[in-house]
Design goal:
283 residues; 3 helices; elongated
Length: 283
C-alpha cells in the first residue's frame, strides 16, 4: 500500500509541477494589459484551478501516507508492548507456581520433621507399555545427602510417585508407582485395612495400579485414600499413593483387589521431585 501511494505521489507531483510551469509561462507571456492579457487570464484560469486541485489532492495523499506510517508505528509498538506483557505474565505465573510449591514443601516438613529430603529435577522420562520410570539429576556425587536404592521419591505435597532403583554418579533411575516392579505395603479405607499396592501390567497403560489381597471383611469404597503403611521400613508411613477407583474380584473368584489412581498424574508435568534419603521408622 505504501509503495502504491509513493508511485501515485510521484506521478501527481510531476503533473502538478508541469501544469504550474505552463500557467506561470502563460501569465508571464501575456502579462501586459489589454485584450491579450484578458485572453491569457481566461486561458490560464482553468490551469490554475487544476493546479490548485492537484496540489490539494497531493496534500491529501501525503497526509494519508503520513497517517498510514503513524498507524504502522503504533501497531508495531502495540505488538512490542503485548509481547512484554505476555512475558511478564508468564514470569508471574511461574513465580506463583514456585511460591505454592515452597509453601506445600514447608507444610510437609512441618508434619514430617524427621524426613531428610533431596531436591532433584526430572531430566528424562522412560515410559512405554512395559516400563514406567524416569531419571533424576542427582546421584552419589552431586547430592547433599546420600541417595540410595530403595529411597522414596515424592512431590512437595508428600505424594509418593516412585522409588529409586539405580544410583549413578550424577543421575539416578526411579520407577514410578504404576511400574510393574513397584510394590509397597499400604493402608486403605476408613478402617485402615492393610493391603499391598503394586503396579500391574494390564493397568499401567491406563495410569493405574492395584491394591491386592483385600480381606473379605474390609470395607473399601471408591474414593478411599491409599497410603503407605511403613511396614518393613522401606517406605515411610503415611505417604499418599492414590485413591480407590473400583473394587473387583479376581477372575478365579478368590480374593478381591481394587484399582487405584495415583494422587499425582505420573507424567512429564512433574518438573521437580524430592528423594527421602532418611526418616525415622515407626514402631
Amino acid at each position: 500500500m505504501k509503495a502504491l501511494f509513493t508511485r501515485k505521489t510521484i506521478v501527481i507531483a510531476a503533473v502538478a509541477v508541469l501544469i504550474a510551469i505552463v500557467s506561470i509561462i502563460s501569465v508571464n507571456i501575456f502579462s501586459s494589459n489589454g485584450p491579450v492579457s484578458g485572453l491569457a487570464n481566461v486561458v490560464s484560469k482553468p490551469f490554475k484551478a487544476l493546479a490548485t486541485s492537484v496540489a490539494r489532492t497531493f496534500e491529501s495523499i501525503y497526509s494519508s501516507i503520513y497517517k498510514y506510517d503513524k498507524l504502522q508505528e503504533d501497531y508495531e509498538e502495540t505488538l512490542r508492548d503485548l509481547a512484554e506483557l505476555r512475558r511478564a505474565s508468564r514470569e508471574s505465573e511461574n513465580l506463583l507456581v514456585e511460591v505454592n510449591r515452597l509453601r506445600a514443601l514447608v507444610g510437609f516438613h512441618a508434619r514430617h520433621e524427621d524426613h531428610i529430603l533431596e531436591e532433584a529435577d526430572i531430566v528424562k522420562w522412560s515410559s512405554n507399555n512395559f516400563v514406567s520410570s524416569f531419571t533424576i539429576g542427582k546421584g552419589y556425587l552431586n547430592s547433599e545427602t546420600p541417595i540410595e536404592r530403595g529411597n522414596s521419591v515424592i512431590t512437595e505435597y508428600g505424594v509418593l510417585i516412585g522409588q529409586v532403583t539405580d544410583v549413578g554418579a550424577t543421575t539416578s533411575t526411579v520407577i514410578s508407582v504404576i511400574d510393574t516392579t513397584f510394590s509397597a505395603g499400604a493402608f486403605v479405607g476408613a478402617d485402615g485395612g492393610y493391603a499391598t499396592a503394586k503396579g500391574d501390567f494390564a493397568l499401567m497403560s491406563s495410569g493405574l495400579l492395584i491394591i491386592d489381597y483385600l480381606s473379605e471383611d474390609l470395607v473399601v469404597l471408591p474414593g478411599d485414600s491409599v497410603v503407605t503403611s511403613g511396614t518393613g521400613g522401606v517406605f515411610p508411613d503415611g505417604l499418599v499413593i492414590g485413591e480407590v477407583v473400583e473394587v473387583l474380584r479376581h477372575t478365579t473368584g478368590v480374593g478381591r483387589y481394587a484399582t487405584v489412581k495415583p494422587m499425582r498424574a505420573i507424567d512429564s508435568s512433574i518438573p521437580i521431585v524430592y528423594v527421602i534419603t532418611g526418616f525415622e521408622t515407626s514402631g
